[in-house]
């Protein structure tokens, strides 16, 4: 491969590498298994990086591989600077970074600053007494006079967010599992420790970070109760869903920590910093965390990840939340990730999945902002129905059958359709393969020039070839129940028009003039009309 000639290396020099980047998320447990133990690992990722590079993406984001008891599969970190043996060693990570960089790929990793594992040495020391050196590194509080928890806060995974600990005769806060005690990021020493963690990985060649659950990083020190949310039509399957979480997350002092952290990252050059921000106030917080040049570069929320349907109005509203204005941040978009059901299973009937997958991919890569592809999304993988006796996700087990369905989106990548292990590396993987995925395997689609895999490569190449699509402004010109049309305009004034028919019936497109240069199209396109699930990108 001639890396210098690859379109991703022809981006405008004036922009940092991450602006308009396409980022490929890897869930390490499920990508490729190099040692046959049923769990994907770092050497497995390294061996398969060619597949990712061939897509034409700019960067990989590797979900947690840190030392962990795996109660939440790596998001319960017991050593922020260590590699869990199930994934390999620090030397394996260094080899992954070296290979990625040789292929022209930047490397991003997760940073989990809101909590640790209860097996972390910091927590072991903190819980041992009320007067040790790390006594205040976690969120501890006395019981109320009747012995009940200090506040009404609820955990994301169900039940109170407080756990009694007899060693200190106090409760500790856990916004997620009880095995994930919340760090007290109000404490300057804890902030120093987290920034030191970032330095450790930067020194190993990391090019960017995705900050997990960042709006959970600080709590209200007064421990005030959360108010209830007003009634709505949204389903409520957990106690967490009944509260307006204004006191156990979203504390205003998070911004001060972000500015400290960003100063360190900016001192290292073009390091990309992206926050994950969920919750009822995510739009406000994403704007706040990315405001100006002293904070994070980008953020992404859950606009699409749990949406039951992909509609023009949903897209238009999401775009409107990120105005192209001075001081406003740069968005990142994900239709799928490791925490949400596969998008095609949420958004398209089985008979429409093939054309819809092509429309969905084109839309994601035409939006203003960074595009995040979750592993297997380039293959059109669907959600796998995991039987109860094979579930491993603690959230799914606790809330069965009304779960977030995370296990079904984390199944192993299908590399070779007719191999017993789908070339994943083990015949008995930690989660079962999806039976529908055999026909979608990498080798099958690689041999079919009309496959979604090849389509994804074409769309990414188009994005890199058109400055208007990579980093230009966006203006939505039409959004109704069926049709979405928007314009992307480059700094040089080039205009690219993107039109999408979200329905199974044809639709007339008044903005579709004859004789324009068509850059890419999918589905049936006729004069002034888009066929079912058809989409078109043309030069204005």
How would you characterize the overall build of this protein?
The protein has 540 residues and is of the alpha/beta class. The chain is 23% helix and 17% strand. It has an eight-stranded parallel β-barrel with strand order 1-2-5-9-10-11-12-13. The chain has a five-stranded antiparallel sheet with strand order 14-15-16-21-18. It is globular, with a radius of gyration of 23 Å.
Keywords:
single chain, 540 residues, five-stranded antiparallel sheet, O16G_dom_2, alpha-1,4-glucosidase activity, alpha/beta, eight-stranded parallel β-barrel
Please write out the topology.
Elements: E1 22-26, H1 42-47, H2 49-55, E2 59-62, E3 66-67, E4 79-83, H3 90-102, E5 106-112, H4 121-126, E6 140-141, E7 162-165, E8 170-173, H5 188-202, E9 208-212, H6 254-266, E10 272-276, H7 282-289, E11 298-300, H8 312-320, E12 330-334, H9 343-347, H10 353-366, E13 370-374, H11 394-399, H12 442-446, H13 452-465, H14 467-471, E14 473-479, E15 483-489, E16 495-501, E17 507-508, E18 518-522, E19 525-526, E20 529-530, E21 535-539
Helix pairs in contact: 5-6, 10-13
């Amino acid at each position: 491969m001639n890396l210098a000639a690859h379109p991703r290396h022809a981006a405008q020099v004036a922009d940092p590498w991450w602006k308009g980047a396409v980022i490929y998320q890897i869930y390490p447990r499920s990508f490729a298994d190099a040692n046959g133990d049923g769990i994907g690992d770092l050497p497995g990722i390294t061996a398969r990086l060619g597949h990712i590079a061939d897509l034409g993406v700019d960067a990989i984001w590797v979900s947690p591989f840190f030392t962990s008891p795996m109660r939440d599969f790596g998001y319960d970190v017991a050593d922020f600077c260590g590699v869990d043996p199930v994934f390999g060693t620090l030397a394996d990570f260094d080899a992954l970074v070296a290979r990625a960089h040789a292929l022209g790929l930047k490397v991003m990793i997760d940073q989990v600053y809101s909590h640790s594992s209860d097996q972390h040495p910091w927590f072991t020391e903190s819980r041992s007494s009320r007067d040790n050196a790390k006594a205040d590194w976690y969120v501890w509080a006395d019981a109320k006079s009747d012995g009940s928890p200090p506040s009404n806060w609820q955990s994301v995974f169900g039940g109170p967010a407080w756990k009694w600990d007899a060693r200190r005769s106090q409760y500790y806060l856990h916004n997620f599992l009880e095995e994930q005690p919340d760090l007290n990021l109000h404490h300057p020493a804890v902030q120093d420790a987290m920034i030191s963690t970032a330095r450790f990985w930067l020194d190993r060649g990391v090019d960017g970070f995705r900050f997990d659950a960042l709006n959970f990083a600080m709590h209200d020190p007064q421990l005030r109760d959360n108010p209830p949310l007003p009634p709505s039509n949204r389903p409520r399957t957990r106690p967490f869903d009944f509260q307006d979480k204004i006191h156990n997350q979203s504390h205003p002092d998070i911004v001060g920590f972000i500015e400290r952290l960003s100063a360190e990252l900016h001192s290292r050059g073009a390091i990309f910093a992206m926050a994950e921000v969920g919750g009822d106030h995510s739009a406000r917080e994403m704007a706040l965390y990315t405001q100006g040049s002293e904070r994070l570069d980008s953020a992404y929320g859950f606009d699409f990840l749990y949406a039951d349907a992909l509609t023009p109005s949903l897209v238009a509203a999401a775009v409107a939340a990120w105005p192209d204005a001075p001081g406003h941040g740069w968005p990142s978009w994900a239709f799928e990730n490791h925490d949400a059901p596969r998008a095609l299973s949420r958004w398209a009937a089985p008979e429409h999945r093939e054309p819809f997958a092509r429309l969905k991919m084109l839309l994601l890569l035409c939006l203003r902002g960074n595009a995040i592809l979750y592993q297997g999304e380039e293959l059109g993988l669907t959600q796998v129905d995991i039987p109860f006796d094979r579930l491993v996700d603690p959230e799914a087990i606790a809330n069965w059958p009304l779960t977030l369905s995370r296990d079904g989106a984390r199944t192993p990548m299908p590399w070779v359709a007719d191999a017993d292990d789908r070339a994943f590396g083990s015949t008995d993987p930690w989660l079962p393969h999806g039976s529908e995925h055999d026909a979608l395997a990498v080798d099958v689609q690689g041999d079919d020039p009309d496959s979604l895999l090849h389509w994804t490569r074409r769309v990414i190449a188009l994005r890199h070839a058109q400055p208007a699509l990579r980093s230009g402004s966006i203006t939505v010109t039409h959004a109704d129940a069926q049709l979405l049309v928007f314009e992307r305009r480059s700094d040089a004034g080039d205009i690219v028009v993107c039109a999408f028919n979200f329905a199974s019936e044809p639709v007339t497109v008044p903005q579709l003039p004859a004789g324009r240069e068509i850059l890419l199209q999918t589905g049936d396109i006729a004069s002034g009309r888009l066929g079912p699930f058809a989409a078109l990108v043309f030069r204005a």
